[in-house]
Amino acid sequence: xxxxxxxxxxxxxxxxxxxxxxxxxxxxxxxxxxxxxxxxxxxxxxxxxxxxxxxxxxxxxxxxxxxxxxxxxxxxxxxxxxxxxxxxxxxxxxxxxxxxxxxxxxxxxxxxxxxxxxxxxxxxxxxxxxxxxxxxxxx
Length: 139
Prior knowledge:
This protein is mainly α. Strands 1-2 form a two-stranded antiparallel sheet. The chain is built from 6 helices and 2 strands, in the order αααααββα. The chain has 2 domains: 1-66, no CATH class; 79-139, no CATH class. The longest helix is centred in the middle third of the chain and has 31 residues, at 47-77.
């Protein structure tokens, strides 16, 4: 919220108060807004403060959830063991595999200009890494 020249809080929202508007800011601007302590009043909170905080946290959470499979993929390819990746994710190894696999299938099958979203050898490397722990595709 902005303050008027008299020090009163202006009731015109200066932060997004709906999910769509927050999501449109993009992940980096959302993260920057979220960590800006000055953007979030502690006392005298209004409905706009509450809605803005909810919109920003919800949009940022959605972005971060979208990127989790990419981070799982990159961690395994960088040599991290699935148990370590699961610990970083805060979930079980099978749940970590499932979180990655839905995204990976879409990327593996996505072809643009003759190139896949992820290379087959990368896909196979991650699948094999989890398979060594007994985590397999559910068919």
